[in-house]
Specification:
The chain is α/β, with parallel strands linked by helices and 465 residues long. It has 11 helices and 15 strands. It has a 7-stranded mixed beta sheet with strand order 7-9-15-14-12-10-11, sandwiched between helices. A 5-stranded mixed beta sheet has the order 5-6-8-2-13, sandwiched between helices. α2 packs across α5 (181-196), α6 (260-278) crosses α8 (327-343) and α6 (260-278) crosses α11. The longest helix is centred in the middle third of the chain and has 19 residues, at 260-278. The chain is globular, with a radius of gyration of 22 Å.
C-alpha cells in the first residue's frame, strides 16, 4: 500500500466522485472475520507531562490527516455480489476525530476500556479516534481495574514513582481492519510537529553489528498444531482485558549476537511455557507470530496495514530448562531464526491468503469461505503474538507547555484462539509492555500473574555470553 500524493479534493470545477481503492489482502481478511464481541482495535496511549490547548490540537490533528490523505477513508457501500470491498477516499473527516472526555479519577480507566470495546466505524472517515484525557497524572499512579489495569513500573524497577506532574494522555483508537499502529503513530508525530512547531523527524535506527553467516539449524516443524495458552479463570463478559506496565530495558552485553527483540521473544516463550506447566498443559511446541515492518518512518511512510507476519517456533525441550547457562545458546538460536524469517520474501499473510482474496467470486461468498477456513485452521493458529514496536522513533514533542512523551503503550487485538497478545515499545530508556487477553481465556488476576512471569524471565535474559 502506498500513500496517495493528492487527496480526493476538487479545487476547481465540478465536484469529483471520491476516489476508490480495493481492499488489500490484510484488510479484506480482517473485514471478513469481524466480531462484535471482540472488536479489532489497536490502542496507542501517549503520556505527556503538560497540557494541550484544545483548539490548537484539533487543528493540528486535522492538518496531519490531510498531509497523510490515505488515512481519510471509509468503506464504500456496495451490493452483496460485488467482487471487492473498496475504500472511498474523502477530502475531509466525516466527523470530529478529537474528543475531550470529562476529567475525573476514572477517566484513564474508562478511556482504556473504550479503546478495547468500541471500534471506530468503518463507514465514517477516518476509522480512528483521538481521546484526550486531561489531568491524568503520572503513568505510575493509575489503579488496576477488573478489566483494564496499569501496573506500576516503579514496582518492577524497585524505585520510587517518577515525580511527574498532572499531565495529559492521548488515546488513539484504531480500527485494525483499516490501519495499523505504526502508520497511525506516524500521523500523530506529524500532528505533534504541527502543534508544537518542533522537528519530529524520526531518529536514525540503532546501529547493529553486521550479521555473520550462521549454520543452518533444525527448527520445530510447523505441521503439528502448536501449544495454546492454557485457560486461566475466564470471565463471563465478552471482549478483551488489558494490563500495561513499565519495566527497565533488558541489559544486552555489547557485541551480543542477539537483539532486544530476541530477548523479548525468548521472554514471551518462557513465560507461556511456565504458565502452561503451572496449569497442567501437555508440553507442545510454541509458535509466536511476529509482525515485521519494513516501511520507512519518515513522511513517505505508506499508511494502512503495512506489516507482514512471520512465525517463530520453539520446541518444548528448549523451554523446559532452569539452567541459566543455557540462556546464551537459546538467545543465539532465536536470533538466527528471527533473522532468517525476516529475510524471506513473503506476502503479508502468506500465499494462501492472497489466493483466498482473489476477486473471482462475490465478496460475500469469499467471506463465508474465509470464516469457515479460519475456524477449521484454529488448532494451527500460533500460540500468541509478540509485536515489538521497538524504540519509538519520533520525539512526539508537543512543544514547551505539553512537552515530550515519556511513555507510549500499544496493544493489539487478542481474539481466540490465540487469546493473548504481547506488545512492547521503548520510550525514554524504559520498556512499555501491554498484555491484552480475551476474557473467554483469562481474567485480570491471570494477566497480573503473566506480567510477573514476564518480568522474571526478562531478567533471566540479561546474561553475559
Amino acid at each position: 500500500m502506498t500513500a496517495l500524493d493528492h487527496p480526493a479534493r476538487a479545487e476547481d470545477g465540478p465536484a469529483r466522485p471520491p476516489a476508490r481503492i480495493p481492499f488489500p489482502v490484510v484488510d479484506e481478511v480482517s473485514r471478513h472475520c469481524l466480531q462484535e464481541e471482540e472488536p479489532e482495535t489497536v490502542h496507542i496511549e501517549v503520556h505527556l507531562p503538560g497540557r494541550l490547548d484544545r483548539k490548537r490540537l484539533r487543528s493540528a490533528f486535522t492538518q496531519a490527516l490531510r498531509r497523510h490523505p490515505r488515512i481519510l477513508m471509509r468503506e464504500a457501500a456496495g451490493h452483496w455480489y460485488r467482487r471487492r470491498y473498496e475504500w472511498e477516499l474523502t477530502a475531509e473527516p466525516d466527523m470530529e476525530v478529537v474528543s475531550f472526555p470529562p476529567p475525573g479519577p476514572d477517566a484513564l480507566r474508562d478511556a482504556r476500556t473504550r479503546a478495547l470495546t468500541t471500534a471506530p466505524p468503518l463507514s465514517l472517515s477516518p476509522p480512528i479516534r483521538l481521546e484526550v484525557v486531561e489531568g491524568a497524572g503520572p503513568a505510575e499512579g493509575s489503579e488496576a481495574t477488573d478489566c483494564v489495569g496499569l501496573a506500576a513500573g516503579s514496582r518492577a524497577a524497585g524505585a520510587a514513582p517518577a515525580p511527574h506532574t498532572k499531565g495529559t494522555v492521548l488515546f488513539l483508537t484504531i480500527n485494525h481492519t483499516a490501519l495499523d499502529g505504526p502508520a497511525c503513530l506516524r500521523v500523530l508525530a506529524t500532528a505533534a510537529e504541527i502543534y508544537g512547531g518542533t522537528d519530529n523527524s524520526p531518529a536514525a535506527p540503532p546501529t547493529r553489528t553486521p550479521d555473520t553467516p550462521q549454520a543452518a539449524e533444525e527448527t520445530p516443524s510447523n505441521w503439528s498444531p502448536p501449544a495454546r495458552v492454557a485457560p486461566g479463570t475466564p470471565e463471563p463478559s465478552p471482549g478483551n482485558g488489558m494490563l500495561v506496565t513499565e519495566l527497565p530495558l533488558p541489559h544486552r552485553p555489547k557485541g551480543s549476537p542477539y537483539t532486544v527483540n530476541d530477548q523479548l521473544m525468548v521472554t514471551t516463550a518462557l513465560t507461556i511455557a511456565h504458565w502452561n506447566r503451572e496449569h497442567g498443559a501437555h508440553p507442545r511446541p510454541l509458535r509466536i507470530t511476529m509482525p515485521v515492518d519494513d516501511r520507512p518512518r519518515d513522511a513517505t511512510m505508506p499508511i494502512g496495514n503495512g506489516t507482514r507476519l512471520v512465525e517463530v517456533p520453539f520446541s518444548p525441550e528448549e523451554l523446559d530448562t532452569h539452567d541459566p547457562a543455557t540462556m546464551p545458546a537459546l538467545l543465539r538460536r532465536t536470533a538466527t531464526r528471527t533473522r532468517a524469517l525476516k529475510s524471506l520474501p513473503r506476502p503479508q499473510l502468506g500465499h494462501g491468503a492472497a489466493l483466498l482474496t482473489a476477486p473471482v467470486t462475490p465478496v460475500a461468498w469469499r467471506a463465508a469461505l474465509t470464516r469457515g477456513l479460519r475456524r477449521a485452521a484454529a488448532p494451527w493458529t500460533s500460540t500468541t503474538l509478540l509485536s515489538n514496536i521497538g524504540r519509538i522513533p519520533y520525539p512526539l514533542d508537543f512543544g514547551e507547555e505539553a512537552g515530550r512523551a515519556h511513555a507510549v503503550w500499544f496493544s493489539a487485538p487478542a481474539r481466540m484462539p490465540r487469546g493473548l497478545t504481547v506488545t512492547t515499545a521503548s520510550t525514554a530508556g524504559r520498556l512499555h509492555l501491554a498484555l491484552r487477553w480475551s476474557r473467554a481465556l483469562l481474567s485480570h488476576g491471570d494477566g497480573a500473574h503473566l506480567r510477573d512471569l514476564f518480568e522474571h524471565y526478562l531478567h533471566t535474559t540479561e546474561v553475559t555470553p
